[in-house]
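User: I'm preparing a small set of examples for a lab meeting where we compare how different chains pack in three dimensions. I only have the primary sequence for this one, and I'd like the structure in token form so I can line it up with the others. Please keep the answer compact; I'll paste it straight into my notes.
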Amino acid sequence: MKVLIFGATGLSRKLVTEMTLAAGHDVTVYVRNPSKVSAAGPGLTVIEGKLTDTDAIAAAVAGRDAVVSLLGPSGKSTGMPYSSGMREIIRTMERAGVRRLIATATPSAADPKGRFNLSFRLAIGMIKRFAGTAYDDLAAMGQVIRQSDLDWTIVRLPWLTSRPNNRPAVAGYVGDPGIKLFFLSRERLAEFVVGQLTDQRWVRQAPVISNG
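Assistant: Understood. Below is the structure token output for the 212-residue chain.
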């Protein structure tokens, strides 16, 4: 499978790229700064570009079988660059006939199947207060994806850790038995995201994944 990854820098994103390559896929990564791509392999192609570069995005999407988005604001940011970028990515995918989209988000991204308790709602309120427009951008990105006609899966992530965990990730919704909202190993994240390239169970759904 020919896979395009947006946002392939950083520890968790490196693992996703490496596992996608190890699974035998042909991987193209689209990044603003190629020097930050630490993954390597004969099946890897790196394309430099910004989320505002429509021609570069079109060239990257062309001929792909699936797109993985690991995009998201870090810290306190301004504006809505990621939701705007996702809107362009989706437009380009629709024009190119590329249907499979896997994107990451946070558990606080609204989903009608979730059952938020009071403590979790208070935690979301704190996140909104301190994250500035970064929270709004991430929430808007989720809505842009949901409103598309693509075969999307939004993978919602709790706090990530490098601590080893040999159990498979547990997937479900906020309030489900076994779903913990605070910890997920980066390896299990990468494993789950790569699995969605061939697993149709969560198409047009937004599960939360955790260590269980």
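A couple of notes for your slides: The chain has a mean pLDDT of 85. The first strand starts at residue 2 and ends at 6.

User: Perfect, thanks.
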